[in-house]
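Supplementary notes (optional reading)

For those who missed the lab, this is the record we used. Protein: Integrase. Length: 430 residues.
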Amino acid sequence: MPTQKLTKRLLDAAEVQPKAYELRDTEVPGFLCKVTPAGSKIFMLQYRTLAGQRRKPAIGSFGALTVEQARAIAQERSARVRAGKDPSQAKDYARKNPTMRQFCDEFISRHSIPNNKPLTTYGYKVLFRKHIIPRIGAIKVDEVTRVDIANLVRDMARVPISANKALDILRFMFKCAEVWGHRTDGTNPCKMIPRYPAGKRTRLLSNAEMRKVFDYLDRADTLGLEHPIYTLGIRLQFAFAARMSEITNLEWSWIDFEERRVTWPDSKTGPISKPISAEAYRLLKSAPRFEGSPFVIPGTTNYMKALKPGLYWQAWKRVLTACEIPHVGTHAIRHRTATDIANSGVPLKVGMALTAHKAVKVFMSYVHAEDEQVRAAAELVSERKSAMLAGPPVENIELKPAGKIRGLSPRKLGETRKIAATQWSAVNDR
């Protein structure tokens, strides 16, 4: 194993032998050139890691790199080894680091499928396919920068709701990337990227509109204006403060009339259980049962299947049109019921149990301040102010100077005191 300073002349003169051999450099420990039987001359750096593992990664071939260039690279890597790092491992890490396209697939299989509902997983796949992969799919996960994320969000300005969803899921994905070893801790590129302003909040159905809706439901049941399955579903959604899917998928086997409780084995937030109010009990007891059908709200043409959400939504739209009420989605039913629950004075935890919300912030986003309450509060504040001003006069208080006021001349200070005394007298004269 010859040891001498590696030079261009030395390597040019190195002859090919039946077996590979190494020419080691005397200036940089571990720096060498391997001459193979095929005639290749490859620069390498041999070192030991802190754990005692032997490494001998290639630097490059002679010809593509000069001796001086290869020696400089070897010196830089040797310095990193002395600092406790492993250049070879870092290179393997960079090579194995997935692209964002690959990471999206990993996220779906490793996190979303085991932890999310199928509909949520489907939504993630659509978001990845339409927005994320086309823009940053070719970039390595550890090379995604804040600028890349900011540009992605900016490019989605036409669809701000989808942009906010993409930002939220990417923020969580990069947290997973740190845990799974794809990025260094604390390097989430989504930090400080602002969301688009929230869109219009779901409008609250007023008391007058609520009366119109229930009056129409009564007439529809009496005159046959709507299929009774639709009217029953709408009434039950109000009674249970439920999501549309919780009503359209409700089964008779989930209802315990003796305990007066309904238990959904699965929902958007997992299994939930709600008590049956007197109104809901009356609706369920009087609801028609279709032979062999497990559903409380079955399809209108096939009783063996649950009612399709689109048909339910269309029925709700027809009800609003008949009542001459501006359109709001079926989720407005939950907003109205959550507001009624909050305004009824029940504890917050109880209200969240009735709506099946797990986070206080989410529950409060469903609670609206009703116009009547705001107006009554404004009147109360006005009355208190009037009562205060109509009270007994304030005793005369001698105004004493608090000391020299910086920036005022003696003449200006005297004028200021006179104005203050005049205003004080005016208050006492009321």
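If you only remember one thing from this example: The longest helix spans residues 160-179.
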